[in-house]
What we know:
Blueprint: H1 8-11, H2 16-25, H3 31-63, H4 71-93, H5 99-109, H6 113-152, H7 155-158, H8 179-201, H9 210-228, H10 237-251, H11 259-266, H12 268-282, H13 292-302, H14 305-311, E1 340-342, E2 347-349
Antiparallel strand pairs: 1-2
Helix pairs in contact: 3-4, 3-6, 4-9, 5-6, 5-12, 6-10, 8-9, 8-11, 8-12, 10-11
Amino acid sequence: MTPPLVYQRDIVKRPRIFTIWERKRNSKEVHWAMECFAESMGVFFYVYFGLGSQVGWVVGNILKEVGFSSIFQIGMAYCLGIIFALTVCAGTSGGHFNPCVTITLCIFKGFPKAKAVRYIVAQILGAYIATLVVYSQWKALLDISDGILLKAGTLATTQFTPNGPAGAFGMYLLPGQSLSRVFMNEFVNCTLLAIIIWSCLDPSNILVPPVMSTFVIALAYAASIWGFGVPGVSLNAARDVGARLAAMTIYGIEAKGGAYSAISSLVNIPATILGATIYELFIVDSDRPVSSGGLEFMNHHANHRRTLQQGTGDRRHSVQSMVDLGDTSSQEKPSIATFEHAPGNGNMQV
Protein backbone atom coordinates (compact mmCIF):
# COMPACT_ATOMS: atom_id res chain seq x y z
CA MET A 1 0.00 0.00 0.00
CA THR A 2 1.35 3.39 -0.98
CA PRO A 3 1.73 5.67 2.04
CA PRO A 4 -0.30 8.90 1.91
CA LEU A 5 1.43 12.04 0.67
CA VAL A 6 0.99 14.60 3.45
CA TYR A 7 2.46 18.09 3.31
CA GLN A 8 3.37 20.17 6.31
CA ARG A 9 0.71 22.71 5.39
CA ASP A 10 -1.89 19.94 5.71
CA ILE A 11 -1.22 19.37 9.41
CA VAL A 12 0.42 22.57 10.70
CA LYS A 13 -1.52 25.84 10.74
CA ARG A 14 0.80 28.84 10.55
CA PRO A 15 -0.06 32.50 11.27
CA ARG A 16 -1.35 34.25 8.16
CA ILE A 17 1.62 36.62 7.98
CA PHE A 18 4.02 33.67 7.68
CA THR A 19 1.84 32.03 5.02
CA ILE A 20 1.79 35.20 2.92
CA TRP A 21 5.54 35.68 3.36
CA GLU A 22 6.26 32.07 2.40
CA ARG A 23 4.24 32.43 -0.80
CA LYS A 24 6.14 35.60 -1.74
CA ARG A 25 9.47 34.12 -0.69
CA ASN A 26 9.03 31.06 -2.91
CA SER A 27 8.06 32.99 -6.03
CA LYS A 28 10.23 32.64 -9.12
CA GLU A 29 11.54 36.21 -8.89
CA VAL A 30 13.01 36.08 -5.37
CA HIS A 31 13.49 32.45 -4.35
CA TRP A 32 17.13 32.59 -5.43
CA ALA A 33 17.70 35.03 -2.57
CA MET A 34 16.35 32.48 -0.08
CA GLU A 35 18.75 29.86 -1.41
CA CYS A 36 21.65 32.30 -1.07
CA PHE A 37 20.52 33.19 2.44
CA ALA A 38 20.56 29.49 3.34
CA GLU A 39 24.08 29.09 1.91
CA SER A 40 25.27 32.14 3.82
CA MET A 41 23.67 30.95 7.06
CA GLY A 42 25.14 27.48 6.63
CA VAL A 43 28.66 28.87 6.30
CA PHE A 44 27.92 31.13 9.28
CA PHE A 45 27.18 28.02 11.40
CA TYR A 46 30.38 26.33 10.21
CA VAL A 47 32.64 29.33 10.78
CA TYR A 48 31.00 30.67 13.93
CA PHE A 49 31.34 27.51 16.02
CA GLY A 50 34.71 26.47 14.59
CA LEU A 51 36.25 29.91 14.84
CA GLY A 52 35.05 30.36 18.42
CA SER A 53 37.11 27.35 19.49
CA GLN A 54 40.01 28.43 17.29
CA VAL A 55 40.15 31.85 18.96
CA GLY A 56 39.99 30.14 22.35
CA TRP A 57 43.02 28.03 21.42
CA VAL A 58 45.10 31.05 20.38
CA VAL A 59 44.05 33.24 23.32
CA GLY A 60 44.53 30.40 25.80
CA ASN A 61 48.09 29.83 24.58
CA ILE A 62 48.95 33.53 24.83
CA LEU A 63 47.41 33.89 28.30
CA LYS A 64 48.91 30.53 29.31
CA GLU A 65 45.51 29.40 30.54
CA VAL A 66 44.61 25.72 30.48
CA GLY A 67 41.24 24.57 29.18
CA PHE A 68 40.35 27.38 26.78
CA SER A 69 40.42 25.03 23.80
CA SER A 70 42.32 22.21 22.11
CA ILE A 71 42.91 20.77 18.65
CA PHE A 72 40.28 18.14 19.40
CA GLN A 73 37.77 20.81 20.42
CA ILE A 74 38.48 22.85 17.29
CA GLY A 75 37.93 19.85 15.03
CA MET A 76 34.75 18.89 16.87
CA ALA A 77 33.45 22.48 16.75
CA TYR A 78 33.86 22.63 12.96
CA CYS A 79 32.31 19.15 12.76
CA LEU A 80 29.25 20.27 14.73
CA GLY A 81 29.07 23.48 12.68
CA ILE A 82 28.78 21.38 9.52
CA ILE A 83 26.10 19.19 11.10
CA PHE A 84 24.09 22.24 12.14
CA ALA A 85 24.56 23.87 8.72
CA LEU A 86 23.36 20.82 6.79
CA THR A 87 20.51 20.12 9.20
CA VAL A 88 19.13 23.65 9.13
CA CYS A 89 19.97 24.96 5.66
CA ALA A 90 20.57 22.10 3.21
CA GLY A 91 16.87 21.56 2.53
CA THR A 92 16.69 25.04 1.01
CA SER A 93 20.00 25.50 -0.79
CA GLY A 94 21.33 21.98 -1.33
CA GLY A 95 24.00 22.37 1.34
CA HIS A 96 27.14 23.29 -0.61
CA PHE A 97 28.68 25.69 1.96
CA ASN A 98 32.02 25.58 0.15
CA PRO A 99 32.99 27.20 -3.19
CA CYS A 100 34.99 24.16 -4.28
CA VAL A 101 31.91 21.95 -3.83
CA THR A 102 29.77 24.40 -5.82
CA ILE A 103 32.32 24.60 -8.64
CA THR A 104 32.72 20.82 -8.79
CA LEU A 105 28.94 20.35 -8.91
CA CYS A 106 28.89 22.72 -11.90
CA ILE A 107 31.39 20.51 -13.70
CA PHE A 108 30.00 17.07 -12.83
CA LYS A 109 26.33 17.59 -11.98
CA GLY A 110 25.18 20.43 -14.23
CA PHE A 111 24.64 22.92 -11.43
CA PRO A 112 23.66 26.27 -13.04
CA LYS A 113 26.69 28.55 -13.43
CA ALA A 114 24.86 31.81 -12.65
CA LYS A 115 23.48 30.23 -9.51
CA ALA A 116 26.96 29.05 -8.57
CA VAL A 117 28.32 32.61 -8.66
CA ARG A 118 25.56 33.76 -6.32
CA TYR A 119 26.22 30.84 -3.99
CA ILE A 120 29.94 31.57 -3.76
CA VAL A 121 29.34 35.23 -2.93
CA ALA A 122 26.81 34.20 -0.28
CA GLN A 123 29.22 31.66 1.21
CA ILE A 124 32.03 34.20 1.55
CA LEU A 125 29.62 36.74 3.05
CA GLY A 126 28.48 34.22 5.66
CA ALA A 127 32.07 33.58 6.73
CA TYR A 128 32.82 37.31 6.80
CA ILE A 129 29.88 38.08 9.08
CA ALA A 130 30.58 35.11 11.36
CA THR A 131 34.20 36.22 11.80
CA LEU A 132 33.22 39.75 12.77
CA VAL A 133 30.68 38.42 15.27
CA VAL A 134 33.24 36.07 16.86
CA TYR A 135 35.80 38.89 17.03
CA SER A 136 33.30 41.11 18.80
CA GLN A 137 32.50 38.41 21.35
CA TRP A 138 36.18 37.71 22.08
CA LYS A 139 37.43 41.31 21.78
CA ALA A 140 38.18 41.88 25.47
CA LEU A 141 40.43 38.82 25.71
CA LEU A 142 41.97 39.53 22.31
CA ASP A 143 42.92 43.01 23.50
CA ILE A 144 44.51 41.51 26.61
CA SER A 145 46.43 39.09 24.40
CA ASP A 146 47.66 41.97 22.23
CA GLY A 147 48.83 43.74 25.37
CA ILE A 148 50.76 40.71 26.63
CA LEU A 149 52.52 40.24 23.29
CA LEU A 150 53.26 43.96 23.04
CA LYS A 151 54.79 44.00 26.51
CA ALA A 152 56.91 40.98 25.61
CA GLY A 153 58.03 42.71 22.39
CA THR A 154 56.74 39.91 20.16
CA LEU A 155 53.48 41.37 18.85
CA ALA A 156 54.94 42.48 15.51
CA THR A 157 56.50 39.09 14.79
CA THR A 158 53.62 36.98 16.13
CA GLN A 159 50.47 38.86 15.12
CA PHE A 160 50.13 37.50 11.58
CA THR A 161 51.06 33.90 12.33
CA PRO A 162 48.87 31.00 13.52
CA ASN A 163 49.98 31.85 17.07
CA GLY A 164 48.94 35.52 16.98
CA PRO A 165 45.51 37.06 17.64
CA ALA A 166 45.01 37.79 13.93
CA GLY A 167 46.00 34.19 13.19
CA ALA A 168 42.86 33.01 14.92
CA PHE A 169 40.85 34.53 12.07
CA GLY A 170 43.01 34.61 8.94
CA MET A 171 45.04 31.61 7.79
CA TYR A 172 48.80 32.26 7.98
CA LEU A 173 51.95 30.25 7.36
CA LEU A 174 53.35 28.52 10.43
CA PRO A 175 56.93 29.68 11.11
CA GLY A 176 59.34 27.09 9.73
CA GLN A 177 56.74 25.63 7.36
CA SER A 178 57.40 25.80 3.61
CA LEU A 179 54.86 26.73 0.96
CA SER A 180 55.41 23.42 -0.84
CA ARG A 181 54.52 21.46 2.28
CA VAL A 182 51.35 23.42 3.01
CA PHE A 183 50.40 23.03 -0.66
CA MET A 184 50.71 19.25 -0.32
CA ASN A 185 48.88 19.34 3.01
CA GLU A 186 45.95 21.26 1.53
CA PHE A 187 45.83 19.32 -1.73
CA VAL A 188 45.88 15.83 -0.20
CA ASN A 189 43.30 16.64 2.47
CA CYS A 190 40.89 18.32 0.05
CA THR A 191 41.23 15.49 -2.47
CA LEU A 192 40.34 12.91 0.17
CA LEU A 193 37.47 15.03 1.45
CA ALA A 194 36.08 15.27 -2.08
CA ILE A 195 36.16 11.49 -2.46
CA ILE A 196 34.28 11.12 0.82
CA ILE A 197 31.72 13.77 -0.16
CA TRP A 198 31.17 12.13 -3.55
CA SER A 199 30.64 8.77 -1.86
CA CYS A 200 27.91 10.40 0.25
CA LEU A 201 26.29 11.78 -2.91
CA ASP A 202 26.23 8.31 -4.49
CA PRO A 203 22.63 7.01 -4.12
CA SER A 204 23.81 3.44 -4.69
CA ASN A 205 26.21 3.54 -1.73
CA ILE A 206 24.34 1.25 0.64
CA LEU A 207 26.76 1.97 3.50
CA VAL A 208 26.06 5.71 3.57
CA PRO A 209 22.30 6.37 3.54
CA PRO A 210 21.33 10.05 3.17
CA VAL A 211 20.51 10.39 6.87
CA MET A 212 24.12 9.45 7.69
CA SER A 213 25.89 11.51 5.03
CA THR A 214 25.78 14.67 7.16
CA PHE A 215 27.73 12.99 9.95
CA VAL A 216 30.19 11.24 7.63
CA ILE A 217 31.09 14.51 5.89
CA ALA A 218 31.32 16.42 9.18
CA LEU A 219 33.60 13.81 10.75
CA ALA A 220 35.79 13.79 7.64
CA TYR A 221 36.43 17.51 8.10
CA ALA A 222 37.10 16.97 11.80
CA ALA A 223 39.61 14.21 11.02
CA SER A 224 41.51 16.51 8.65
CA ILE A 225 41.66 19.22 11.32
CA TRP A 226 42.73 16.79 14.05
CA GLY A 227 45.53 15.38 11.93
CA PHE A 228 46.72 18.36 9.93
CA GLY A 229 45.40 21.54 11.55
CA VAL A 230 48.73 22.37 13.20
CA PRO A 231 50.86 22.20 10.01
CA GLY A 232 48.14 24.30 8.37
CA VAL A 233 44.99 23.39 6.48
CA SER A 234 42.10 25.51 5.21
CA LEU A 235 39.66 23.04 3.56
CA ASN A 236 37.08 25.70 2.71
CA ALA A 237 37.68 28.74 0.51
CA ALA A 238 34.66 30.55 1.94
CA ARG A 239 36.04 30.24 5.46
CA ASP A 240 39.48 31.34 4.28
CA VAL A 241 38.49 34.28 2.07
CA GLY A 242 35.61 35.50 4.24
CA ALA A 243 37.62 35.34 7.46
CA ARG A 244 40.67 36.89 5.80
CA LEU A 245 38.60 39.82 4.54
CA ALA A 246 37.27 40.23 8.07
CA ALA A 247 40.82 40.10 9.46
CA MET A 248 41.82 42.81 6.98
CA THR A 249 38.82 44.85 8.14
CA ILE A 250 40.01 44.51 11.74
CA TYR A 251 43.80 44.56 11.45
CA GLY A 252 44.42 46.29 8.13
CA ILE A 253 46.01 45.27 4.83
CA GLU A 254 48.85 43.46 6.62
CA ALA A 255 46.40 40.67 7.38
CA LYS A 256 46.23 39.64 3.71
CA GLY A 257 48.50 36.65 4.27
CA GLY A 258 50.94 36.86 1.35
CA ALA A 259 51.59 33.87 -0.91
CA TYR A 260 50.05 31.44 1.55
CA SER A 261 46.63 33.02 1.04
CA ALA A 262 46.61 31.82 -2.57
CA ILE A 263 47.27 28.25 -1.43
CA SER A 264 44.68 28.26 1.34
CA SER A 265 41.96 29.80 -0.81
CA LEU A 266 42.53 28.22 -4.24
CA VAL A 267 44.21 24.81 -3.90
CA ASN A 268 41.02 23.20 -2.58
CA ILE A 269 39.32 23.81 -5.95
CA PRO A 270 41.53 21.61 -8.20
CA ALA A 271 41.90 19.13 -5.34
CA THR A 272 38.13 18.74 -5.04
CA ILE A 273 37.78 18.35 -8.80
CA LEU A 274 40.47 15.65 -8.71
CA GLY A 275 38.75 13.84 -5.85
CA ALA A 276 35.42 13.85 -7.67
CA THR A 277 37.15 12.63 -10.84
CA ILE A 278 38.78 9.76 -8.97
CA TYR A 279 35.44 8.68 -7.54
CA GLU A 280 33.67 8.95 -10.91
CA LEU A 281 36.41 7.03 -12.75
CA PHE A 282 37.18 4.24 -10.30
CA ILE A 283 34.37 3.89 -7.76
CA VAL A 284 31.02 4.70 -9.41
CA ASP A 285 29.13 1.62 -10.60
CA SER A 286 25.98 2.52 -12.52
CA ASP A 287 24.76 -1.09 -12.40
CA ARG A 288 24.41 -1.03 -8.62
CA PRO A 289 20.81 -0.59 -7.44
CA VAL A 290 19.90 2.61 -5.67
CA SER A 291 19.62 2.00 -1.94
CA SER A 292 16.20 2.17 -0.31
CA GLY A 293 17.33 5.18 1.70
CA GLY A 294 18.58 6.95 -1.41
CA LEU A 295 15.38 6.21 -3.30
CA GLU A 296 13.24 7.40 -0.40
CA PHE A 297 15.28 10.59 -0.26
CA MET A 298 14.90 11.27 -3.99
CA ASN A 299 11.17 10.53 -3.87
CA HIS A 300 10.85 13.00 -1.01
CA HIS A 301 12.43 15.60 -3.28
CA ALA A 302 10.38 14.58 -6.33
CA ASN A 303 7.10 14.95 -4.44
CA HIS A 304 7.76 18.49 -3.28
CA ARG A 305 4.51 20.38 -3.91
CA ARG A 306 6.04 23.08 -6.15
CA THR A 307 7.87 20.46 -8.20
CA LEU A 308 4.60 18.61 -8.78
CA GLN A 309 2.78 21.80 -9.73
CA GLN A 310 5.47 22.64 -12.29
CA GLY A 311 5.61 19.17 -13.78
CA THR A 312 2.31 17.34 -13.48
CA GLY A 313 -0.16 19.54 -11.62
CA ASP A 314 -0.23 18.11 -8.09
CA ARG A 315 -0.12 14.48 -9.27
CA ARG A 316 2.04 12.30 -7.08
CA HIS A 317 4.98 10.62 -8.80
CA SER A 318 8.20 8.81 -8.04
CA VAL A 319 11.71 10.01 -8.68
CA GLN A 320 11.83 8.22 -12.05
CA SER A 321 9.42 10.74 -13.55
CA MET A 322 11.69 13.66 -12.62
CA VAL A 323 13.62 13.14 -15.83
CA ASP A 324 10.58 14.34 -17.79
CA LEU A 325 9.88 17.56 -15.92
CA GLY A 326 11.23 19.75 -18.71
CA ASP A 327 12.24 23.39 -18.37
CA THR A 328 11.65 25.17 -15.08
CA SER A 329 13.28 28.12 -13.44
CA SER A 330 16.62 27.54 -11.77
CA GLN A 331 15.38 29.91 -9.07
CA GLU A 332 12.09 28.16 -8.30
CA LYS A 333 12.54 24.85 -6.52
CA PRO A 334 15.26 24.83 -3.86
CA SER A 335 17.92 22.16 -3.73
CA ILE A 336 17.45 19.60 -1.02
CA ALA A 337 20.32 18.12 0.96
CA THR A 338 22.63 15.93 -1.13
CA PHE A 339 20.56 15.99 -4.33
CA GLU A 340 20.33 18.85 -6.78
CA HIS A 341 17.54 19.06 -9.29
CA ALA A 342 18.99 21.43 -11.85
CA PRO A 343 15.98 22.75 -13.78
CA GLY A 344 16.63 23.79 -17.31
CA ASN A 345 18.61 20.71 -18.34
CA GLY A 346 15.72 18.31 -17.74
CA ASN A 347 17.33 15.79 -15.44
CA MET A 348 17.87 14.85 -11.84
CA GLN A 349 21.34 15.77 -10.67
CA VAL A 350 22.52 13.24 -8.12
